[in-house]
Amino acid sequence: MQILLIEDDATLGAYIEKALRQQGHIVDHQVDGRAGLIRASSELFHAIILDRMLPNVDGLKILHTLRATGDQTPVLILSALGSIEDKVTSLRAGGDDYVTKPFAISELIARLEVLKRRGPTEKSVSELGVSDLVMDLAAHKVSKGGVPIELTSREFRVLEYLMRNKGRVVTRSMILEAVWDYNFDPHTNVIDQYIRRIRQKLNADNGEEYIHTVRGAGYGLWNE
Asked: Is this prediction's pTM over 0.85?
């Protein structure tokens, strides 16, 4: 899973991140509420672990903002606030689960697995676009300058992931996790093969680049 961890306690955050990575998860750790909200609002995650008390923007504000924009990514609240009132307030604000500090890491991981099975992770949008490249998610169609582009189902999902993360560099492992939902051999070249085919279809007429290779890092989608 791709997990966004928003926790300002550096020691605790590092502990959680290490444990999740050992389970094969991809973790994006943010220690500031504002930075965490930006990441949560702009990238697709399978789940979010959210501390209640954060600098700059508190956890409840982040939760209210995400739900108000239609983002239904499962959120697990992590907090030292253990009263019934605190739990009820967090759940009514849109939280999906609540874990009180201190906690057992095995329980945290188990609860994340439950959230992954339970909730949707897609952003509530019907169309993605970069320049004249448009993806209609409902119709499962892609066009460039109004001209349809024929993609296989898997090619569509790879391109969708890149478009949801436009302007950012994503690694091969991130694409594999998001599109195949399986931990492949990190040395596999399956992603390179799909990227090459998608590029050929997008750039067939005028050679305009959309998908860029960032050496040593991965791929990014933007128009230059």
From this structure: no
